[in-house]
Amino acid sequence: MMLPPIPGPLRAPLDKAIEVNKAVLDLIRQSPPWKSIFRNPYPNTDENRALVMFNSFFLHIMPVKVKRNTLKWNYTFGMGLLTFYLFVLLTITGVFLMFLYVPAAGQAYTDMQRLGTNVAYGQLLRNSHRWAAHLMVLFVFFHMCRVFYTGGYKPPRDFNWVVGVILFVLTLLLSFTGYILTWDQLAASAITVGANIGAASPMYIGGLMKAFILGADDPGPPTLIRVYAFHVILLPFAVFTMVGVHFWRIRKDGGLSAPATGRKARQVIVPSTRGGFSVKDVPAVSPEAPLPAPPEEVRR
Ligand code: HEM
After folding, report:
1. pTM, whole model, 2 decimals?
2. Can you give the residue ranges of every domain in the chain?
3. 91: how many CB neighbours lie within 10 A of its CB?
């Protein structure tokens, strides 16, 4: 930015002030404490910008470059990130709920009731956790549909699809185990159904599954404590780890899949007259061009 010309008598002191200011800044930037925190020079070239990303703990998870067209909001609808943010919200509200809930068969139900009557903002806390859980299941499903619809599951992203399936199962298990923690009649029915599904596994696995889920012959205190351990430690830890792998894989697979451009973008898959499907080119549409006539069979 060009500064307006400075009037004569002020010019010399101002020049001096700018010079001193620059010298002080240089001194700070050359000092060992500054250099130990900011290891790269000011990021004014592509290379320096990349170095800043690589060397910062907070930034290194972000890609240095992204394909421009994957930033279109309606390519991903942000479903994956929304699922991740819901998981973060669930972790925060879950930690607060742990202060107020004891996973003991005689106390769990009353603790849940007390949240609505005796605890300031307790109902808000409980509902935030519950709604975030419902939404996470919904959004993870929408995210999965989006990935399928845009072909994001195809090589080289096939392994990340598998990681995603594991995340999907973990999300459902978190939802199921959370439902049991209220320890009311619905929870008792749900765990009975869950244990009986496990018991239906073939051979001796069925008996083992049921014993593993219930920790006893019938739902009781051992069941609640193991469901609690799964809900607050094992499953969140597994999701956290797998989300890390999921994000890392996106980077390794060359970023998000991109919408097809060029000729591919103008191709459609249509039912073939010989059975099955075939690829067909559609004419490029310009805003001025008249709408194409509908195909023969539609007009009839
Ligand atoms: C806790 C659950 C999950 C989280 C937090 C999550 C997060 C994300 C995020 C943030 C992205 C970047 C693009 C976007 O926002 O759409 C992404 C991409 C992707 N996700 Fe997920 N995801 C989860 C579950 C799943 C599931 C269930 C599947 C499939 C079964 C899946 C498969 C994929 C694939 C293949 C990509 C790359 C897609 C592409 O390149 O177009 N993810 N995920």
Report:
1. 0.79
2. 72-252
3. 15
